[in-house]
Amino acid sequence: MATAAYSKPAELLPDDVLAAVLTLAKRKSGRDRLAFRGHDSDLQKFFRDLSKTCGSRLLEPFVFSDSGPEPYSPVLNECLSRLQLSGLVGRENPDYEVVFLRPSAEAYFTESLSNRFSKDEMEGLERIADCFLKLVVPT
């Protein structure tokens, strides 16, 4: 007698949260392309501010150390590197200070990520994306 395999829902990773925030921010920006000045230290500051101002549990994996001259989250750094390696995020030369979202990020969010977040989590991601846009694209 065969038994049906139990399929546990995939656990959300910090990478998923970062990809969702960036994709939702792009949508909210109304631009064809979301690009922003984002040297590593800038991104660390942006997300440190987000974790303080938005207070969402979705940002809890991004723990920041204050032991150095600037707040630093190894998890955020690793997530951004993985998103870049997977082709969802890019950096422009010559100094890699401009970060941009690749079109594949939108497809990944729509096809794979959006249905993995609960309604409450999506609302939280929307708020985080709003706050993120205010930081990276000041009006």
Would you summarize the structure shown here?
The protein has 139 residues and is mainly alpha-helical. It is 51% helix and 8% strand.
Describe the structure.
The structure is a single chain. The chain is 51% helix and 8% strand. The chain is mainly alpha-helical and 139 residues long. The protein has one domain. A three-stranded antiparallel β-sheet has the order 1-3-2. A hairpin with a 5-residue loop joins strand 2 and strand 3. It is globular and about 40 Å long. The N and C termini lie far apart (64 Å). The model is unreliable at 3-9 (pLDDT under 50).
Chart the SSEs and their pairings.
Layout: H1 14-29, E1 35-37, H2 40-53, H3 74-85, E2 89-92, E3 98-101, H4 103-113, H5 119-136
Antiparallel strand pairs: 1-3, 2-3
**Domains counted in the coordinates: how many?**
1
What is the percentage of strand-forming residues?
A: 5-15%
Shape: globular
Q: What is the succession of H and E elements?
A: HEHHEEHH
Which strand order do you get reading across the main beta sheet? Answer: 1-3-2
Cα gyration radius (Å): 16 Å
Structural class: mainly alpha
The averaged pLDDT comes out at 86
Amino- and carboxy-terminal Cα gap: 64 Å
Based on the model shown, name its key terms:
3 strands; mainly alpha; three-stranded antiparallel β-sheet; disordered N terminus; 139 residues; globular; 5 helices
